Write a sequence for this structure.
């Protein structure tokens, strides 16, 4: 009961703080527009002002702050009295590539592991999603029932999915091993062996990611007119030919942004790996993003971690740009 | 005469074709193929449903036989023990309440900030607005983990560590760019004339915004609110950094802690998961059609 009261009180305080903050921002914006700059866009600027302040406070400033942290020697012991300087930045940058990020894994191991993780996951997402979407894309009974069931992994909160699957990989009592044993195989040490732990997290992430691709591809398939297939049939094209010469090319505008999103999400996937195994055993399932989290909030290497996150950001940008270059998809309509 | 007969015949044919489209057993694939497709889909559904059903199974197990190799979906002598224990021995309601406050605060704040900003972007050609929109899009490419440390330090410096307010600010502000894109796209699709008519009738700009535009864009507002709700209700990484005090712990953090004491609390974890997952999944399923269209909605209009 007292928690509810506490919560409501906090909410009230937040409202009051919000109203005061917005009024101050609006007032300053009004003065700036009317008196200082004398612009004719007073109203839109006043409408924009709170959002601009918010974006600056929680996106732009943190980003710049991160850059400055990357050039500092901030750590647990130097949380307040840290120094910023080029030499620290260079040191951090060299450290990223030479010193182990955590206790044992180095940057390049993590990089290759992340690449494998991303490629395998996105590949299975697209193939699985495409397969199910094509099966669903026809007049059939129970279509809505199937779609509702198949979308479930996306609908359930990721935290719950990861924690539940973690239980199911338990050596003795998880259903994966029980099934294996009943089928006559020997049980697999899912969470104890680095290789199998990686397989386990990939299974979970594939299970999680297929519904998104399925939904997107299904939407794309529905916009392809049936006439194309009829004409292809008359011309004697088989199912596989139809797939590669009609479906894939016409799905491209949908697939390219979806795959890009998939790559970014998978590359940045923190929840699954962290909740299933905390990157263990023996740091065997850490990917770049989880190791960054661990370096910062587990080992308190703030300056180093900031530089590391910058490196990851640049890498992600490069990967995305390369992807677009290869697919030839950096077109306007994809975005606007 | 002849002509009309032919016309009628054509219409009849067309009608029968339409009918056959509705009658699944006449149109399209051969029966064998159809059976194969249904088999594939049923197998896929089992792959999806079995792990999900295990949540229910485990949550219904009595405490004495929590760890068994039994695979039945409804366990023998099923009880509600875990559910009762969740509410009596643990502050489950508090966790949900914390998550709810943060989610509601985030929705309100992010919608307030992003509707006004989106309106400004939709109705005025401000100098450099294109650049600003592209900038907002690039912020979506930042890895979530990248801003974690600086936001954490900003929040600590602002003395908002371990508070709802810090979480709400952080979530709402990171949700703004996406919401602006989404809402601006929708605002552009609403005819300007409606607002101009209101202005001619003597309404102020603020009135035409709140009385004309906002009521017309409730679908987009709902989608944006839903997106904000889903992301912060299910968020884990940032909450884990910024909320350490038990009194403000959200359900994602609490479930993760339960997992830490793994062997004893398996049933509790499952019970909590079930209670949290059902409403969220229902909302998601009901809204999934709009959510998917919402992902593209913002990009439709230029």
């Amino acid at each position: 009961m007292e928690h509810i009261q506490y919560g409501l009180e906090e909410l009230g305080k937040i409202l009051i703080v919000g109203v005061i903050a917005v009024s101050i921002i609006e007032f300053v914006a009004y003065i700036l527009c009317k008196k200082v700059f004398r612009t004719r866009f007073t109203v839109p600027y006043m409408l924009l002002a709170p959002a601009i302040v918010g974006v600056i406070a929680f996106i732009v400033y943190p980003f710049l702050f991160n850059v400055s942290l990357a050039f500092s020697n901030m750590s647990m012991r130097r949380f307040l009295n840290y120094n910023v300087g080029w030499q620290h930045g260079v040191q951090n940058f060299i450290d990223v590539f030479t010193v182990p990020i955590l206790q044992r894994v180095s940057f390049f191991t993590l990089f290759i592991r992340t690449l494998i993780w991303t490629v395998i996951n996105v590949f299975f997402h697209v193939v699985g999603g495409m397969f199910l979407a094509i099966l669903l894309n026809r007049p059939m009974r129970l279509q809505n029932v199937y779609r509702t069931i198949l979308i479930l992994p996306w609908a359930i909160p990721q935290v719950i999915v990861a924690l539940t699957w973690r239980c199911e990989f338990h050596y003795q009592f998880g259903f994966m091993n029980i099934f294996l044993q009943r089928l006559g195989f020997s049980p697999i040490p899912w969470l104890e062996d680095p290789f199998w732990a990686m397989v386990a997290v990939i299974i979970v992430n594939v299970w999680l990611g297929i519904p998104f691709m399925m939904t997107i591809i299904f939407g794309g398939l529905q916009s392809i007119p049936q006439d194309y297939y009829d004409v292809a049939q008359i011309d004697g094209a088989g199912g596989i030919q139809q797939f590669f010469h009609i479906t894939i090319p016409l799905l491209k505008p949908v697939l390219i942004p979806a795959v890009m999103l998939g790559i970014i999400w998978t590359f940045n996937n923190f929840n699954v790996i962290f909740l299933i195994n905390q990157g263990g055993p023996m740091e065997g399932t850490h990917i770049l993003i989880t190791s960054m989290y661990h370096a910062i909030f587990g080992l308190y290497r703030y300056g180093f971690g900031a530089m590391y996150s910058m490196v990851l950001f640049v890498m992600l940008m490069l990967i995305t740009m390369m992807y677009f270059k290869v697919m030839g998809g950096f077109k306007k309509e994809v975005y606007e | 005469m002849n002509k009309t007969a032919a016309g009628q015949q054509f219409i009849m044919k067309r009608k029968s074709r339409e009918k056959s489209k509705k009658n699944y057993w006449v149109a399209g694939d051969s029966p064998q193929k159809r059976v194969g497709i249904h088999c594939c889909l049923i197998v896929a559904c089992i792959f999806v449903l079995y792990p999900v059903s295990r949540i229910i199974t485990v949550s219904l197990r009595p405490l004495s036989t929590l760890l068994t190799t039994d695979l039945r979906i409804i366990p023998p002598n099923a009880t509600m023990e875990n559910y009762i224990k969740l509410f009596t021995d643990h502050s489950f309601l508090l966790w949900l309440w914390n998550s709810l406050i943060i989610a509601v605060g985030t929705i309100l704040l992010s919608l307030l900030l992003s509707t006004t900003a989106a309106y400004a972007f939709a109705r005025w050609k401000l100098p450099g607005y294109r650049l600003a929109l592209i900038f907002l899009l690039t912020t979506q490419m930042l890895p979530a983990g990248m801003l974690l440390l600086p936001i954490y330090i900003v929040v600590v410096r602002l003395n908002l560590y371990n508070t709802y307010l810090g979480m709400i600010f952080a979530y709402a502000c990171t949700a703004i760019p996406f919401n602006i894109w989404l809402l601006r796209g929708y605002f552009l699709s609403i005819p300007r004339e409606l607002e101009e008519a209101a202005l001619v009738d003597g309404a102020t700009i603020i009135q035409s915004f709140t009385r004309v535009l906002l009521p017309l864009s409730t679908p987009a507002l709902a989608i944006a609110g839903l997106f904000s709700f889903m992301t912060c209700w299910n968020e884990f990484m940032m909450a884990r950094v910024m909320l350490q005090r038990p009194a403000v712990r959200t359900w994602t953090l609490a479930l993760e802690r339960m997992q830490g004491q793994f062997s004893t609390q398996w049933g509790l974890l499952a019970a909590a998961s079930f209670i949290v997952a059902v409403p969220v999944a229902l909302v998601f399923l009901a809204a999934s059609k709009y959510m998917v269209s919402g992902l593209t909605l913002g990009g439709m209009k230029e």
Notes: Chain B touches chain A through 100 residues (CB under 8 Å). Chain B has two domains: 31-79, 87-300. The longest helix of chain B spans residues 266-300. The two ends of chain B are 53 Å apart (CA to CA).
